[in-house]
Amino acid sequence: MWSRRRIALPRRALHITAPRRRDIFDPATIQRISEDVDVCIVGAGPAGLSAAIRLKQLEREKGSEFRVVVLEKGGEVGSHILSGAVIEPRALSELLPDWSSRDDHPLKQPATSSTMRFLTKKYAILIPHPPQMSNHGNYITSLSQFTAWLGTIAEELGVEVYPGFAGAGIVYGEDGNSVTGVRTNEVGLDKLGRMKDTFEPGMERTRLALQELIRKFDLRKDADPQTYGIGLKEVWRVDPSQYRPGEVVHTLGWPLNYLTYGGGWVYHMADGLVSLGLVIGLDYANPYLSPYKELQRMKHHPYFAKLLSGSSTRVAYGARSLNEGGLQSVPKLDFPGGALIGCSAGFVNIAKIKGTHTAMKTGMLAAEAAADVLSESDSSEASDMSKYDTAVRNSWVWSELNEVRNLRASFNTSMGIWGGMAYSGVDSLFLRGRTPWTFRNKSQSLDAEHTLTASHFKPIDYPPPQPPLSTDLLTSLTLTGTNHAEDQPVHLRVRKDGVEDVCLRKQHVRRNVGEYAGLLQRACPAGVYEYIEDDAVSKEEGWDWEKVGDQLAELYSLQAV
């Protein structure tokens, strides 16, 4: 979020013009409409909307007037949020103490039980679960509906929410060392970067804002690299005989082997719906692993097959990346002119498998710091949000993450997977983080560095889909609600230090296909990556990876599908 800054917000309207020759988009020649705002928040998720609501509350308390704008890339608030979550209402109760008395709130289904099961190929064995995974007082809900509800409250308080506007670029001050605003994405470019009749201006650096800020202001200087997991989720309307409202189940073990960090879940939501899924740490070793096919295989376990039997039907599918680094990977949170809030900064409590409550609290703390800045500072100066960083470190968010800081990290120590499981059990049950040590990533290694080359493994023999229980990926994608134009710009870009060129694409294709057997086209749960074999390279003659890399890179065979 940015305080007292300028936002380039082009006005978009439906219009029809005569066909004309398409010119290449040149940012230097485009004039943009600029509007002054007090606070610009990028992303209408739980953190961003909590920040916006809290700012409007403080506006009334201080007798001031703040213009608060929220940019949301989705077509409507909540449309890019994956449904099915267990929410701890701690932050919500602080933000909106009367939330439970509002007739329109979406937290209708309280969690009634929490269990953990260890899966073998045929059995689901009950095992003790860590106290952090207790869900007493929590609610199972659609996170999409929850976010949309927060958006309605924000607008009622006077927040300006703009769906369909992604924060695509950063605007720096004249000194180049402070942030003065953001630019929205351009609309109406074809896949060759030419302006169509529907073109509206924006900024070219799409989806790079966060990493750009972290690099420019060296925010990760004292933090470990962030680590990630990939979470795949389906929502089913189950047969009434299998529906147990409020039941929460987490799983370990099958279909993942002992070398792979991850686990599954089943949440019985309201209205006969069940959210189920699988999270896999992106530090997995085997490049032949397919997260999507692992989820499909998991559903054939007898426990899941029974749950999804009878008249059960699948209604939604989706996936997203998760921050797993914990406290050690949280960067410096403020920079001249703004701050990082919510999951973008890495506040997921991986032991609880929850992050909504911590994200909301960071948004609220950022709002309080921004309100102080707006009341005290000169608008011509870069906003100093350092109070926010201090406030987070003194809050219950920091204490909560500190307690579980060593759990996920223990799996990447010399103890290995089994040692990590043993340590996590002892720490979560008895030590509760009260240790003088903290496991750090001293080598600064990234998830990708844990993945071995394909020569170390044999391809995984996944069973074919067996509808309706399991399906191919394209069938699942029809349930995501996403819509992409055939003629839109390619969004898969191969860069190093912000620089992109043909040589980098060649190196990427050559290494990914030649050494890792095309890992990315299996790793992506949406089938975005596709490597197309060139007929000019004969299998009988053996693969010429230099030639393949050159041809694929030149022909843009690394495609966005």
From TrEMBL:
ETF-QO/FixC ubiquinone-binding domain boundaries: 228-322
Molecular functions per Gene Ontology: 4 iron, 4 sulfur cluster binding; electron-transferring-flavoprotein dehydrogenase activity; metal ion binding
Gene3D superfamilies: 3.30.70.20, 3.30.9.90, FAD/NAD(P)-binding domain
One protein family per Pfam: NAD_binding_8
Entry's cofactor comment: Binds 1 [4Fe-4S] cluster.
E.C. number(s) listed in UniProt: 1.5.5.1
Secreted in keyword set: no
Entry GO CC: mitochondrial inner membrane
Keywords of the record: Electron transport, FAD, Flavoprotein, Iron, Iron-sulfur, Metal-binding, Oxidoreductase, Transport, Ubiquinone
Catalysed reaction equations from the record: a ubiquinone + reduced [electron-transfer flavoprotein] = a ubiquinol + oxidized [electron-transfer flavoprotein] + H(+)
Domain ETF-QO/FixX C-terminal, residue spans: 469-538
Cofactors demanded by this protein: FAD; [4Fe-4S] cluster
Function: Accepts electrons from ETF and reduces ubiquinone.
Protein name, UniProt field: Electron transfer flavoprotein-ubiquinone oxidoreductase
Organism of this sequence: Boletus reticuloceps
Species classification: Eukaryota, Fungi, Dikarya, Basidiomycota, Agaricomycotina
